[in-house]
Fold each of these.
Amino acid sequence: MTPPDTIGSTLGAVAAALQAAGFDEARRRARRLLTVALDLSLSEVFVRLDRMITEDEGERVAAVLARAVRHEPLSRIAGVREFWGLEFMLSPDTLDPRPESETLVEAVLARLPDRAGAYRILDLGTGSGCLLLALLSELPAASGIGVDAAPGAVEMARRNAEKLGLAARSEFVVGHWAQPLGQEFDVVVANPPYIASADIEGLPPEVRDYDPRRALDGGADGLDAYRAMTTQLPRLLVPGGVFAGEFGQGQDGAVAELIGASGLRIDCIIPDLAGIPRCVVACRDGGQKMVGTGKSPA
């Protein structure tokens, strides 16, 4: 007679299956998988290894494992991703937020002189709304608009705003970059598609097969979105306003050139935690200067 499964024995079986499928750090991945399948915290998985697994729970573990071995990210399976300490719901229409994008949030906050200011913020290509909502969570008097071409992404961003208690200070609209807008903002942020079209197939399957292609594909050289955005930035920013945008590895020079050609002044290029140039900060001259020292945030 086969003994009943426990969390411990299930953890071992899942780790073995992941290792056989070619995943590295299989034990760590298995623990995270069980947190999703069993709705447990990591600490609970660690300390409750002898807890029995019910038949229904075993079926849930098997279902999640079957998706994971096809390289579907656990954040996609769970439908949520933590970003800036906040939990964001995901859908097939939204990019899965990456930790390196927090560099952009840090860059903006480091360059606003007054956290209590009533800033107006625009998020171009908002996706899940993570950039705008992360900033609003730190700036209690600020408000903003998120724009995305995908109606499903706009709906998900609205739901995230409601879940986080930020719906009253945020609005999300369907549009192609800033074309539907006729107002100025203190801050414009963007994490546009910046992968060259020919490079999409070489991306890890977790990205290539599960993130929406429109959120990845930046055209032949990856810079189509920046060409579209930079022509609109001067009219979008108030004098002294700040733009912060994410870009891909090796694109810092080309992005800075496009932004400079629009008439904005480059303040700095900021690396992510891996030391890779990741974020450009620029400002529109005139008015009260909101950009800080030009140094990267600590």
Amino acid sequence: MPVIIGAVDWALGVLRGGFFAVAAVMAVVCGVDWLVRTRKMNPFGPAARFMRAYVHPLIAPVERRVVRAGGLPSSAPWWALVSVVLAGIVLISLLEFLRGQLSSAHNAVGSGPSAVYRLLVTWTFQLLQFALIVRVVLSWVRSRPGTWYYRWSWRLTEWFLGPLRRVVPMLGMIDVTPIVAWILLAVLQGLLLRLA
């Protein structure tokens, strides 16, 4: 296990440096592309020809989404930069989360059955609470019920939200069942952790 944690630490170090370098290069490229698109730079010069030949095809999917959303095509380079930065943040955060969970598992295995039990209870309730958050957020935005993330969160939460809805009244148009479920999950987790 320490070898795996060391490998994840190494990957995190490489990714942090790599994403910083990619984001810096992308910022320069997007800045030049924006200057070309807004005609603040000669649109017929070598830089503009390079951008049209090599950069515009890479940014085209982002540009289509920006235009569909009502934005200006000239803002596509900045949205592409935001997408790259967000992807880097999400990937690094996921690896840090994985490293933390691996470290917790390693420590729990070394500490005995009681620590393993506590870890499994904590992981189970964190997964249920995460699924509950996903389900609440998806209820605020337009999402198709057939998507995998909707089905996943529904399957993990409906078994306790369904019976609660029959008991907990709505407050006007607000369904407070997820809040009650969150509190009950926290109380149940605390009770199960005290058994260890």
Amino acid sequence: MVALFAVAIIGVMSTRAMQNLQTMEQREREDDLLFVGQAYLRAIAQYHDQSPGTVKRYPPDLQSLLLDERAVRVRRPLRRLYPDPVGKSNQWGTVEAPDGGVMGVYSLSPQTPVKRTGFPAALEQFEGATSYQDWKFVYIPGVIKEGT
């Protein structure tokens, strides 16, 4: 009887440990998503703000962030296209700018985030999100400052 009780306790503890491990891994992927999303946000801001001439343009696609040849000096707003750490794919959802181009990115994962509060001021709109698809990293000139 005691041995059966001990096996049951060990089983419950093992299950709880696995749940904690999965939650910890999800939190790490969320941290990666915040880092990568902000890298895309900064790259989009740089591409937009450093547009030659007076008319500012968003990049036509994410690939354009790798090599910006619009000016005399070549710029590389982003060194590489990062995969989505939560969705575990190379595909990102994109937020289209009103006049064309990409003004933001978001994960395509429908998973529910563990993190609900405590976001930096520039990302406070993520609070209470029901899925990672709600975490949209969007550059709006004058509202979102570069370097967030």
Amino acid sequence: MAVSDPLVSTDWLAARLGEPTVAIIDASWFMPGSGRDAAAEYAERHIPGAVFFAIDEICDHATELPHMLSAAADFAVAARRLGVREDSTVVVYDGHGLFSAARVWWNFRAMGHAETFVLDGGLPKWIAESRALESGWRAPGHGDFKAHPDGALVRDLEAVRAALESGAEQVVDARSAERFAGAAPEPRAGLRSGHMPGARNLPWDSLLTADGRLVDNSALRTAFENAGVDLAAPVVTTCGSGISASLAALALARIGRADAAVYDGSWSEWAARSDTPVTVGKA
């Protein structure tokens, strides 16, 4: 499948429903306290053939940090149980339009599965177009997925610390401007407020239209450039827990920077420690 765009359209997916090489994944996830249950919403209605990827279950359970990337062997087992094959074209969507789908897109790409895409407009667009839905839980056939981790797409704390100190990589924080400046409390208890010294701020919602789609490519480039990002230089994205950082990485891939890395631990890790510098105020 010769597609350079990380997004596929609802028309594209509708024409391929039922094809054995297309693996459709519902990656809906909602912030704690939102009052929404992603699994229950999947059971109520989802795109025909879609399986549910539980972000807080298919993760590294050896850490208390939220939904960290799984070990390769564990991820491969989970993907096979979802019916994903080596030759699958993976299409991920969510109930927002675009939010958590980007995290699962990044998960698969970090595991070396390049044939992974996000459904443009997600479930809201699919429903608005009166397309087919189904309910209940699917029992997919067992896939033969194998993980081939791509470490170039993942950064840990020490790599980010080194990038900030050397300036070799730009760190882009996708949290809100208020959280970045330390003017709003963090939603997770025990975290300091503020940002990493030297990080740029580009709130994730500024990359989206009102109906949950990425703004056009020209507007994406302008948004990154206005945030002080050199689009020709290496970029690492970060946020609160790696969800919206993945959305920022998706936006970069849309404008030709598919090599952007994600700091997996993000602010949940950085701000919980006592040995990491934190700055308060605007960048």
